[in-house]
Amino acid sequence: MEAPRILIVEDEAKTAQALRTGLAAEGYEAVVAATGEEGASQLAGGGFDLVVLDWMLPGRDGIEILGDLRVRGEKPAVLLLTARDSVEDRVLGLDSGADDYLVKPFAFAELVARVRALLRRSVPEESLRRQVGDLVVDLAMRQVFVGGEEILLTPREFEVLAFLARHEGEVVTRRMLALEVWREPNRSTPLDNVVDVHFARLRKKIDGGRSVRFIHTVRGVGYVLEERAAAQEGRRTLK
Ligand code: CA
Predict the structure, then answer these.
(1) CB–CB of 180/163 below 8 Å?
(2) pLDDT at 95
(3) Ligand 1 centroid to 11 CA: how many Å?
(4) Which of the following CATH numbers is that of domain 5-122: 3.40.50.2300, 3.40.50.300, 3.20.19.10, 1.10.3720.10?
(5) What gap in Å lies between CA 219 and CA 217, rounded to an integer?
(6) What global pTM score does this model have?
(7) pLDDT per residue over 62-111, tens digit each?
(8) C-alpha of residue 106 to centroid of ligand 1, in Å
């Protein structure tokens, strides 16, 4: 299952990078265009599920790009960003074909909530669900089920599991987790202990007392999410 693709059209480099990094950490594939022209040419290539579109851009502004997109009858959901907050501006933005409207400055959490809501409307449910055997991770609803039974996780535990689920069958290193889940790349002391403590709790909730296990340690490297029988896991540990 592919991650939803998001185009960010934003000329302020710092904002654009922060959005790109943040959206990537949420599991989206995010691409930045720094000008209206670049945005328009990326959009002409197609394949985006959502566009985070700044209104005020040098050259072609957000409203023009939006107009062209809708004239061509293209579907990506559009979240318009703007510092303009009059009622007339909102009406113009929405009349131009934006699906939603966010006034700068905004909290990243709010942007993510809007993005999620827009994608729920435009992307089939399936792509926001990850299923590994009996384990279902619903990225949109932030719910986890094992064998149909809901498992209650803390927000951090959910982030860890969602990250593993997006990388099913691949080894996820502690460094990847520090960067993508904890987002503390510049921390002076390693996060290893913190990560391990979260894994111990997560494991207990997901794998505790079951004959099938999902979360496995790769010694000295990190973790992997895949379905294995508990007995099989035992053999691997002995190697
Ligand atoms: Ca701008």
Answers:
(1) yes
(2) 83
(3) 5
(4) 3.40.50.2300
(5) 6
(6) 0.53
(7) 999 998 888 777 779 999 998 877 878 888 888 888 999 899 999 999 99
(8) 14
Confidence class for position 18, pLDDT limits 50, 70, 90: very high
Q: What is the per-residue burial (b if ≥16 Cβ within 10 Å, else e) of 197-228?
A: ebbeebbebbbeeeebbbbbeeeeebbbbeeb
Q: Start-end ranges of CATH 1.10.10.10 in the chain?
A: 126-232
Residue intervals of the chain classified under CATH 3.40.50.2300 are 5-122
* Rg, C-alpha atoms of the chain: 21
User: Which pLDDT tens digit goes with each residue over 28-63?
Assistant: 999 999 999 999 999 988 889 999 999 999 889 999
Q: Which residues are found with C-beta within 5 Å of the ion, ligand 1?
A: 11, 54, 56
Separation of CA 130 and ligand 1 centre (Å): 36
Contacts (Cβ under 8 Å, ≥6 apart) of 177: 160, 163, 191, 195, 222, 223
CATH class of 126-232: mainly alpha
Give burial (CB, 10 Å; 0-12/13-18/19+) of 99.
Answer: middle
Joined together, the tokens standing for residue 85 give 């907050």
CA of 117 to the centre of ligand 1 (A): 24
Q: Computed from CA positions of residues 52, 38, 2, 201, in that sequence, does the dihedral angle turn out positive or negative? A: negative
